[in-house]
Amino acid sequence: MKTEKPEDVLPDPYPALPVERGPHGRGVGRWVVEEKHRYLTRYLDATREAQKKFKQRVLIDPFCGPGRIQVEGERLTRDGGSIAAYRQSVRSGAPFTKLLVGDIEADRVHANELRLKAAGANVQSFVGPAKEAVDEMVKAVPFGALTLAYIDPYNLEFLSFSIIERLAKLQYVDFAVHFSLMDLTRNIDMELDPKRDRFDHALPGWRLAAPTDELSKSSLPAWFFDAWCKAIGTLGFKISGQMPLITDGKGRSIYRLVFFSRHPLPDRIWSDVARSGNLDLFPS
pTM, whole model, 2 decimals? Predict the structure, then answer.
């Protein structure tokens, strides 16, 4: 996948506002643009005709960040995920009629909102942890709207299953979720300690259900991910078999991009879009 040429990147309408530069401040990985945003925008373009059948089309992004990123090694800044998604929806002729964005930090939410409005979007913002803001987000979705929930937390500990449960109450909702493999594989053995709780919200009760007598510690991440997928299935969704593996360019797995829906059409379209990214879940 190729990234946009620098001359194609639109300037930041609010350069003085916060920009996401990654946990170390050196810039986010190139895979954010080349993979995360690319899969998202390709899917939106591929589903444009189906989306046009709905009067209301909503994007929910409860981990929105400031709406602008800087890739490591670049001087310019680029659109964040929700803004890239909105611009693509406009280019595809099926613009989102409403964007619901949230973040735990007020200044980041405000920056995202202003940048989306500058792009022409109808946006409503929410400040607070995603697991607390999601109820108000659900209430803000117009009845009968087609909704895409774009769930992209930095670590697995913030991927609260309750977020998905509450969004699942919407009539027409599909999910694109970034599941942090790096966090899972690095820390699951430590999280077996009942005094720790970092993964408890992502999969409630997992520690009691894990067959630790039968599995080696190296097998636990695959078990956890499979159990999480089965829990999604209990909500009435089918998880796509196409799960692009996002790496850091050095061979280390960072995320799985997991798509699930109730209807076969979005699943079929996602499968076409993401087929090239379907690699082994936990490569050796």
Answer: 0.93
